[in-house]
Amino acid sequence: MSRPAFDPAAYDAQLAEKKARLVELLTPFAAPEPEVFESPREYYRLRTEFRLWREAGSENRHYAMFEAGDKHSPIFFEDFPIASLRINELMPRLKAAWQASPALGFKLFQVEFLTTLTGDALITLCYHRPLDDAWEAAATQLAEELQVSLVGRSKGKRIVVGRPYVEEELQVAGRRFRYRQPEGAFTQPNGEVCQKMLGWAYDVLGQRDDDLLELYCGNGNFTLPLATRVRKVLATEISKTSVNAALANLADNQIDNVTLVRLSAEELTEALNDVRPFRRLADVDLKSYDFGSVFVDPPRAGMDPDTCELTRRFERILYISCNPETLAQNIAQLHDTHRIERCALFDQFPYTHHMESGVLLVRRS
Which residues bind S-adenosyl-L-methionine (predicted)? Predict the structure, then answer.
């Protein structure tokens, strides 16, 4: 991971540049003015990772990152103002612990922090050696002192002290939704902006009397609030870890109108096109759904052409994107049948060129 160019004084200008870039990409499709959702200027990132770098001629190691393409010139950190306050509070205490304890510090080469807006925290410690009983005893004591969960990773082994996930709460339209966010699985890094994304999607979808198809549902981040706006939801996700988290999140929030199937978007497209049957859909009556809307939150590559073509069948396409270029490519494929009714910019990644964006596409009359 390279070091972000942290400069709060430049934030407004950088955000304006992102908006201009999104407007330029969407202008060929007669998009309306994007709604812009800002990020906090600092302490916004809920997860981050550091390599540890040893000083020449010393056993002291420091939190380090590198510029892109350079793995030999570390940049050292004592604190990290783009990361959450909880991460900044934990950094010096963890460093003191590994320096004082050979059981914790020996051949430790990477540290990963995962935190939440509610203050929950999980730390992953990665080693170039097997983990033993001495490590587990030291880690158990440290986890209690720091009030965190700890995960130790070495080749072929993982030891969990506490829970292998953190618990988050996000508020949407006056309701609080609880989320389990597993170690090692994808979660939105900017919690404050994530809440704004959920609120925007909830508002844009509106209250419906039909059904929703959701592709790439992850741990149910959008599924939970959107399920309260429709009759029922069919959601798909390929990652087993994310599926298990999503099922737990649905149960924790007492949401019972969602059927979740572990399929890729491409596989579901084949199923809906009657290309081939899938055992995981054996108990799902696809013909019982009255789909009015489809929600997609694909990876950076966007939707593949067949999945994009599938979404054309729906009256409304709600699309969250982490790559505006592939978003524009997908819209170009759909533009002859759908128009952009609303669009938004979510600044998940301040001080970088990355952005999240959203569009609502509605079938042309």
Answer: 188, 216, 221, 237, 297
Instruction: Give the span between the Cα atoms of 229 and 205, in whole angstroms.
Output: 7
* Alpha-carbon span 320 to 250, nearest angstrom: 21
Q: What mean pLDDT comes out for the span 115-129?
A: 97
Would you say 289 is a known binding-site residue?
no
Determine if residue 133 is labeled as part of a ligand binding site: no
> In this structure, which CATH number among 1.10.287.3510, 2.40.50.1070, 2.30.110.70, 2.170.270.10 belongs to the domain 47-166?
2.40.50.1070
- 221 belongs to an annotated ligand binding site: yes
User: Angle 9-10-16 (CA atoms, 0-180°, nearest 5)?
Assistant: 135
Check residue 286 and give its pLDDT.
87
What pLDDT is stored for residue 4 in this prediction?
54
pLDDT bucket at 252, cuts 50 / 70 / 90: very high
pLDDT digits (tens, 9 = 90+) for 57-112: 666 889 999 887 777 788 889 999 999 999 999 999 999 999 999 999 999 999 99
CA atoms within 13 A on the CB side of 248: 17
Closest CA to 238 of 230, 246, 227, 229: 246
Return the closest-CA partner of residue 10 out of 357, 355, 352: 352
Catalytic residue IDs: 322, 356
- pLDDT, one tens digit per residue, over 13-28 is 999 999 999 999 999 9
pTM over 0.90: yes
* Phi/psi of residue 100, nearest 5 degrees: -90, -15
Residue 346: CA atoms inside 13 Å, Cβ hemisphere, count? 25
Domains of the chain: which residue ranges?
A: 8-41+189-363, 47-166
Instruction: Give the tokens for residue 360.
Output: 């609502």
Element (H, E) at 145: helix 133-146
Q: Which two tokens stand for residue 192?
A: 């404050």
250 secondary structure, DSSP code: H
User: Would the pLDDT of 139 be above 90?
Assistant: yes
Q: Which CATH class is domain 8-41+189-363?
A: alpha beta
Q: How many CB atoms lie within 10 A of CB 309?
A: 14
